[in-house]
Amino acid sequence: MSVIIRQALEQDEPSLSKICLLTADAGNSAEHLHDYPELPGLVYAIPYIKLPTTWGFVLEDQTTNKVVGYILGTKDTRTYESYATEHWWPPLALKYAPDAASKPGDVYYTNLLRNMYTVSEANVQFSPAHLHIDILPEYQRKGLGRKLIGRAVEYLRGEGLEGVWVGLDPRNLAVRVFYEKLGFKQIDGAPDVHQLGLRLADWES
């Protein structure tokens, strides 16, 4: 298997959307939860290749030329939230009406588009930067997640940042173990225990 890491591009949108869907149910496929399978990606993946302050890298399998994983984020969460609130969420809220949703995943996301959460001040005080990472199941447990985090750390250091944080799905216990092994720790003052942060100086490649 020959897998490389490269910058995420707008033409990767279909792949990012598919990967997000196939891992959106606490690390498992959410296909059965949606009539609108694009919704998870429109919230957690696609904005990070389109909106200001964002960055991203993908895993590409060179034997198939397919994107099989990604790490995406923003350098400035508050600016990202503000821009998305004005420009990204409203058109999606108009397009995806709650009364047209019947499957549980669609109900959740159509409501979320109308009442998108913002992160706590504790998260932003820890670092303005946050990330999302997803890898197709068949490419997991091969050290690729660590490599993606390492590439993100390298990039964020170059941007003058000192930390990065991530929010976790509390149902996905394995992903918490993954982050904690890499040095992520609970953020002091965060409103729940599912917010983990990494000081970039503590990263061990």
UniProtKB/TrEMBL annotation:
This is Acyl-CoA N-acyltransferase. CDD domains: NAT_SF (cd04301). Keywords: Acyltransferase, Transferase. It comes from Ephemerocybe angulata. GO terms for molecular function: acyltransferase activity, transferring groups other than amino-acyl groups. PROSITE patterns: GNAT (PS51186). It comes from the Eukaryota.
